[in-house]
Amino acid sequence: MKLVTAIIKPFKLDDVREAISDIGIDGLTVTEVKGFGRQKGHTELYRGAEYQVDFLPKIKLEIAIQDDHVDRLVESICDAAKTGKIGDGKVFVYDLEHAVRIRTGETDGEAI
Predict the structure, then answer these.
(1) Distance between CA 95 and CA 97 in Å, rounded?
(2) pTM recorded for the entire structure
(3) What is the CA radius of gyration of the chain?
């Protein structure tokens, strides 16, 4: 099992959700986060004064998945989230050692 974590631009959430739904993925966790990478934030104008925004709003997706579906999931996320501009995000894949569905007690592959 793997845990796929993706950091994407907020306006791309619906596109990514549709793309992963189209390949049969029906569960994910979404968190609103803030951060920066190579973008280094940006400058905004508010009531005539400039100020630096260091942390940009992003969306963090977490998806537990079987090993044999990882490549297709990562490709779907990348295709749907890509704008071609700086700040499109990143996808991370981690090993997932154990999972339990609380309601039924199912474990590992049956739990996801």
Answers:
(1) 6
(2) 0.85
(3) 17
